[in-house]
Write a structure and sequence with these properties.
The chain is mainly α and about 190 residues long. About 45% of the residues lie in helices and about 10% in strands. The protein starts with 5 loop residues before the first helix and ends in a 14-residue tail after the last helix.
Length: about 190
């Protein structure tokens, strides 16, 4: 699950370990040896990589909310409000409990901070021209685990797909470079 505050979560586990630390017992199917596994901080630290990647590796320093915000900010200005309002989660890694709430909270903080900085920078003009509040909405749905597969299958069902798809024979003849020049993206 995704915790709202990692410091509070640590203190919760430290104050009542018997309540929060889960123990799993089983027998190895081949060796028939019994084994035990305690799962504690791992329950909330696993999805924390989305929000604090520097905890795990110095190679990846950009958290998911910052990545989403930077991506939306790189889009045309007239589309940003709609993009902030329609952030859709898809894929198995988005199935962590409360990921949508935390992502929405972090994004809203970033957006509000940017708006406040803009008001402060514009001085008196901010008092006369006030924009509407930017709505941040993260959509979590029951089919998000299969959304990528579902989208791919819808694309493959399209009759035009066969005209732009590459065959195995073409791939074998030209190599991986053939995939870099897809007719699907020719119009973009």
């Amino acid at each position: 699950y995704v915790c709202p505050d990692i410091v509070k979560e640590y203190s919760k586990y430290d104050s009542e370990p018997k309540k929060w630390i889960k123990q799993y017992h089983s027998v190895h199917p081949v060796t028939k040896q019994p084994w035990q596994c305690d799962v504690a901080y791992e329950r909330f630290l696993a999805p924390e990589i989305f929000f604090s990647p520097e905890m795990y590796s110095s190679d990846y320093l950009v958290p998911l909310p910052t990545l989403i915000d930077d991506t939306i900010q790189s889009c045309p200005i007239d589309t940003r409000r709609g993009l902030y309002n329609q952030i859709v989660l898809s894929g198995g890694s988005t199935m962590f409990k409360d990921l949508d709430r935390r992502l929405k909270r972090e994004l809203k903080k970033t957006v509000d901070k940017r708006i406040q900085a803009s008001y402060k920078a514009s001085g008196d003009a901010a008092q006369t021209v006030q924009g509407q509040e930017v709505s941040v909405n993260v959509i979590s749905h029951p089919f998000q685990r299969f959304a990528v597969w579902f989208g791919g299958s819808m694309l493959a069902c399209n009759p035009e797909f066969l005209t732009v798809a590459r065959s195995k024979e073409e791939y074998d003849e030209y190599g991986p470079g053939i995939m870099r020049h897809s007719p699907v993206f020719a119009g973009i």
